[in-house]
Amino acid sequence: MMIQELTKQQSLDLVPIFSEMENYYFGANAATKEEIATYLLNGVFSDYSGVHVVAYYDESEVVGFTTFSILFPAPNLSGQLFMKDLFVSADARGEKVGQQLMRYLAQLAIEHGVRRFDWTAESTNPKAGQFYHAIGAQLIQEKQYYRFEGDELRRFAEHQP
Prior knowledge:
Elements: E1 2-5, H1 15-26, H2 33-44, E2 52-58, E3 61-74, E4 78-88, H3 97-111, E5 116-119, H4 126-134, H5 151-157
Helix pairs in contact: 1-2
């Protein structure tokens, strides 16, 4: 077992687990491994991304990963660690891989003077909510989550009503 933050040079180690995640969430509409490799190199690990990726290796295979950013400003002149994704391979679920990845992020937050660690979860994934509750996380109900997507994003950007 090894947990480490990945560099762009290691990004292709993520192709198999990103492929599994794509199939889990999108089934027949999942991206191909070639599309995933391009996305990792030109999106996730691009210079403008601002995202960090931490992987959990079981020998040479990535069996879990998380993506995060540290955002400023945050309360009390600190930062906010925001976890965008946490995914564990089906074969590694129940082996505390997700918990260890989240503990790694919590330790990283403390080391960098960050006082808040936040993330979202799909309401359609009750197992995720049960997992987060079991590790002691608080469900923050007073926050609302907003989004522009697709054509709405384009219209807003172009100032079209």
